[in-house]
Amino acid sequence: xxxxxxxxxxSRVFKGYWFLPxxxxxxxxxxxxxxxxxxxxxxxxxxxxxxQDYLMNVESxxxxxxxxxxxxxxxxxxxxxxxxxxxGKLNLSSEFPMINYTIDYAIIGVHINSWEEKAFFKLEAKLxxxxxxINKRRVSFSTQYSNSDNRRLGFDIKFRTDDHxxxxxxxxxxxxxxxxxxxxxxxxxxxxxxIEEHYTLEIxxxxxxxxxxxxxxxxxxxxxxxxxxxxxxxxDELQLSCKNYYQEYRNGRMFYNPIQLLYIQERPTVLPETxxxxxxxxxxQSIKQDFPEIINNWYxxxxxxxxxxxxxxxxxxxxxxxxxxxxxxxCQALEGFHTRFKNHSKISLKDRLQELVTEFSYVNEIKDIPxxxxxxxxxxxxxxxxxxDREIYKGHELYQLTxxxxxxxxxxxxxxxxxxxxxxxxxxxxxxx
Length: 433
What we know:
Blueprint: E1 12-20, E2 23-35, E3 39-45, H1 51-60, E4 64-73, E5 78-89, E6 98-108, E7 120-126, H2 130-134, E8 140-145, E9 152-158, E10 167-171, E11 175-184, E12 196-209, H3 211-229, E13 237-241, E14 246-248, E15 254-256, E16 259-262, H4 291-299, H5 306-316, H6 324-341, H7 349-359, H8 371-383, H9 395-417, H10 421-432
Antiparallel strand pairs: 1-2, 1-4, 2-3, 3-6, 4-5, 5-6, 6-16, 7-12, 7-13, 8-9, 10-11, 11-12, 13-16, 14-15
Helix pairs in contact: 5-6, 6-7, 6-9, 7-8
């Protein structure tokens, strides 16, 4: 799948003609520009509206949207732009306006009529740290030596696709996920051979679905990887497949034309590439036997878990400055977890924390969490009370308490998705002792 293709972290420019699906004869020349983490915009020399219509839109001071814009670039690729917000300028002395659009999503390789169109059956995603997280090499290397003088005779590098099975797992809603191994030697290197192997995530549906459904499924896995690797995970590349766009080989094998998906991602606080495998909470090999249950539980999370997951993921990011609000976020997540999944009754924060601490008292440090000080500190920083004789933590003590409470929240989540007490103890001991 991935060899020397451009990634979502590289700037792209598409020059071509652009038009609305309901008016394909009115084509406007323009340039689609993509700058990672910054902008995805279309610049048109002219516009789809008449100058009079454009002036009326400007005077209304409302944002004018075109849901879908189609394009054909200089390489004859079909392009669909989704959720296009118009802005621009009109010089009354000029014969044409300069119209710009900010674009939410660009789908390179196909025309669809709406973002709800069920046109795709597969998404492949390349994610940073995914290969490190899998932690399984499939290229073998061996060296031969002479028996007489122990002189090195040479070496062998071996790779065969039929030596290994790809991981394929069924998840709910007629979806499967698979870990696809890729190995290749870059071309045009006469005397240099660099072998690259990496894994990609494949999500496949039994029935066609819209691209947004695939994005949500891929983002959910990226959040799991963020937790497992303790690092913000986005996408290096996203590729969709449509059953209507393919080539058929003589042997009957189908090759689906690559359909790339571009959109603006949030810039990570810390580059994932700087993260080392030893810093991961868990890797795939350590949970391989239980992974089918774990990932199904993860995809089974409903909206009740979403804000708790978001708080935990945000707390994992290595912000350069610690703030009291970081402590409050973890307290809120713990309180919310206990309220939604343990005890719906109206009980105090102290009682909720005590129950969670007792449940995971077998984990070092958690059993020693100062609950009363935690509650006092939460009330102090949340409600901005005046200081009194109640003990609270500040500065470094508050930071250390936040780290320990985050461990407790991780334990809660790991237990919820199916990790055993023994595995939780092992993971926490390896990463935090």
